[in-house]
Amino acid sequence: GQLGMGLAEMLRKQYGTDNVILSDIKKPPPHIFRSGPFVYADVLDYKHLRELIINNQITWLVHYSALLSAVGEANVALARKINITGLHNVLDLALENCLRLFVPSTIGAFGPSSPRDPVPDLCVQRPRTIYGVSKVHGELMGEYLHHKHGLDFRCLRYPGVISVNTPPGGGTTDYAVQIFHDALSTGHHECYLRPDTRLPMMHISDCHRATVEFMQAPECQLSLRTYNIAAMSFTPEEVAQEIRKHLPQLKVTYSPDSVRQTIADSWPVRFDDSNARRDWGWAPAFGLEELVVIKLVYQP
Ligand SMILES: NC(=O)C1=CN([C@@H]2O[C@H](COP(=O)(O)OP(=O)(O)OC[C@H]3O[C@@H](n4cnc5c(N)ncnc54)[C@H](O)[C@@H]3O)[C@@H](O)[C@H]2O)C=CC1
Ligand SMILES: CC(=O)[C@H](N)C(=O)O
Questions:
Q1: Residue numbers annotated as active site
Q2: Could you tell me if the CB of 106 is within 6 A of ligand 2?
Q3: Which of the chain's termini has less CB crowding within 10 Å, N or C?
Q4: In this structure, is the dihedral angle defined by the CA atoms of residues 221, 204, 102 and 17, taken in order, positive or negative?
Q5: Which CATH number is 112's domain given?
Q6: Domain named NAD-dependent epimerase/dehydratase: which ranges (predicted)?
Q7: pLDDT in tens, the chain (300 residues)
C-alpha cells in the first residue's frame, strides 16, 4: 500500500536501492516497479515468505499488510485471516530467522473505554473493530515474544496518515486524504464524518521518518516496545477551514456514515506521545498549517 511504497523509498535512500525489497499481492504502479526490487508475496503463504527471507538474506522485516478499519468491518473473516494469521506467520519467521521486526499499530487499537484526550501508551484497550482487536493482538504477541525469546519487535501506533493523492485502503480517517484531492479537483467534498469529529492525524513524511528513526534507535533507549506517536489532531471542519485559507471556494457537505462515525467516536481524539519524545527523540515536523501548505502548494 501507500505506506509501504513510501517507506521503501526512504529506506532505499539510506541503505541502497537493492538492499530493500518491496512486496505486495497487488501490482504496484510502474514508477514503483521500476524504482527497485519488487516481489509478489502473500503473507498467508508461510513457505514462500521463508524462501524469500532466506534467499535474500533478509535482516529486517516491516510488516504493513492489513485490512484497515472500515474495510475490515465489511469483511471480518478476511480481516481476521490477513491481520491475525498473516501476523502470526511474520512473527514466526522473524523469530526463526533472528529478524528485526516492525509492525504498525494504530489509534484504532483503543476503544470507548480508553481515555480519549489524551490517550497514554498504557491504558485500557478494548477496541470494537476487528481491525483494532487484531492490532492489540499484534502489540501483545510481539511484546510477549520480545520478553520470552528476545525478538527485536518494535511497534508504533500511527495516527490517521495523510498520504499522497491516491485512494487509501478503506480506513476511517481516509476523508482527510480525500478532502485535499476534492479541494484541488471539484472543489466539493462530501464528508462521511460529522464536522466536529476530532482524530489524531499525521503527514506521511513524519510517519516514515518516525518509523525509520524508531527502527534505528539503540535497544537500550527503549523503555517500551509499542509507542504512540502524534503530530496534530483536527476535525473535518477545522481542516476545511485551513484549506479555505488557500482555496476559499471549497464546499464541504456532511453525510455521516454510521459505521465509520461509530468507529471514529470510539477512537482517541489526541495521542500522548511523551514517551516516544523522551526515549528516542520523536518530534513531528508537520502541524495542520504545514500539512495544508504542503498538500495544496507542493501536492506530495
Ligand atoms: N494509513 C493509515 O492511516 C494508517 C495505517 N496503519 C497501518 O499501516 C499499515 C499500512 O497501511 P496502508 O498502507 O495505509 O494500508 P493499505 O490498505 O494501503 O495497504 C495494505 C496493503 O496490504 C496488502 N495486502 C492485503 N492482503 C495481503 C496479503 N494476503 N499478503 C500481502 N499483502 C497483502 C494490500 O494489497 C495493500 O497493498 C497497516 O498495517 C495499517 O494498519 C496504522 C495507522 C494508520
Ligand atoms: C487510523 C487507521 O488505522 C486507519 N487509517 C483507519 O482509519 O483504519
A1: 131
A2: yes
A3: C
A4: negative
A5: 3.40.50.720
A6: 1-230
A7: 889 999 999 999 999 999 999 999 999 999 999 999 999 999 999 999 999 999 999 999 999 999 999 999 999 999 999 999 999 999 999 999 999 999 999 999 999 999 999 999 999 999 999 999 999 999 999 999 999 999 999 999 999 999 876 666 799 999 999 999 999 999 999 999 999 999 999 999 999 999 999 999 999 999 999 999 999 999 999 999 999 999 999 999 999 999 999 999 999 999 999 999 999 999 999 999 999 999 998 876
Q: How many domains does the chain have?
A: 1
d(CA 261, CA 193): 6
**Residue 201, strand partner residues:** 160, 232
| Pocket, ligand 1, Cβ cutoff 6 A | 1-4, 24-26, 42-44, 64-66, 68, 82, 86, 104, 106, 158, 160-161, 168-169, 171, 173
Contacts of residue 192, Cβ cutoff 8 Å, sequence gap at least 6: 175, 255, 256, 257, 260, 261
Local structure of 65: helix, strand or coil: coil
Q: Which amino acid would we find at residue 221?
A: Q
pTM > 0.95: yes or no:
yes
DSSP designation for 200: E
**Which residue type sits at 78?**
L
Q: How far is C-alpha 22 from the geometric centre of its chain's CA atoms?
A: 16
Is the bond into 29 cis (omega within 30 degrees of 0)?
no
Report d(CA 93, CA 182) in Å as an integer: 42
287/280 Cα distance (integer angstroms): 20
Q: How far is CA 169 from CA 162, 186, 224, in A?
A: 12, 22, 29
DSSP three-state, residue 192: coil
Please tell me the distance from the alpha carbon of residue 22 to that of residue 33, in angstroms, as a whole number: 9
d(CA 156, CA 227) in angstroms, rounded, equals 5
Q: How far apart, in whole angstroms, are the C-alpha atoms of residue 269 and residue 73? A: 21
Please state the length of the chain.
Answer: 300
